[in-house]
Amino acid sequence: MKLNVALFFAGLFGALAAVFILLSFGTDYWLLASESCQLNPDETVSPGGVTIEEATRVVTLYHEGFFWKCSFGGSEGDDHLLWKLWFTNQPHSKVCMHAYLFPFPVSHQTHNATEYDTAIIYRGFWSIFMLIGVAAVVLGGFFIICAAPFASHRLYKAGGGLFLVSGLFLLCVVVMYVLWLEVLDVLDLYIEHQRSAVCPDFQLSHHYGLSFMFAPVGIFFCLLAGLLFLLIGRTVQIHCH
Q1: pTM score, two decimals?
Q2: Residue 114 CA to chain centroid, in angstroms?
Q3: What is the pLDDT of residues 80-133, one digit of tens each?
Q4: CA-to-CA distance for 215 and 66, rounded, in angstroms?
Q5: Phi, psi at residue 8, to the nearest 5°?
Q6: Contact assessment for residue 74 and residue 59, using Cβ atoms and an 8 Å cutoff
Q7: Helix axes 113-147, 2-26, angle to 10 degrees
Q8: Half-sphere exposure of residue 5, counting CA atoms within 13 Å on the CB side?
Q9: Which partner for 64 in 21, 31, 196, 217 could form a disulfide, CB atoms 3.0-4.6 Å apart?
Q10: Which of 27, 100, 31, 102 is nearest to 62 (CA)?
């Protein structure tokens, strides 16, 4: 009876882990960012004959995930700019490019060749770890399905081990992403370049998106399911002997 209860919760946690990890992997909202630039003021004449200077701030919005990095324009007068980055509230026209090896905001124009190559290598490892984590959780779920009900302790152990491997690799993915945005100086270099070459009043803000938030939840359930499946496999092995 206790073994059936443990198997139920392990299966539930494993299913939740797979759902959250696949959502994090398949949606392009790991990062939400907005950059703005104050253009030269336009002169307008009021009805009283007084000249008024009206400054225009151009805003560009970005969202980025594993597959795509997209951008589109906005204006400072819009309320809740970041809400424009979600699925149901986006313009029909936006520019997207593959994001496998090109993390925001690195480009040839804003970073030198060494920094650009380093960023590609860093992003390459991030992408590889992501793929290993997703593949491991899918393969682990397949092993667990084949192992039910208590047919083979080896399959339970293999499935549990794959869930643990997936959780550990995806934990590295999350840590690497936080380091990229918060510790490394790529954003500071980008802001300095834009202010010196494009716009002295350049501003950049970034937030973690829903895809990023799915990842730690999936990791938690993945590690928990992996430990339970290993325990179940050990218990089935003891009962067999």
Answers
A1: 0.83
A2: 25
A3: 555 655 555 566 677 888 887 777 776 656 566 667 778 888 888 999 999 999
A4: 12
A5: -60, -50
A6: yes
A7: 150
A8: 2
A9: 31
A10: 31
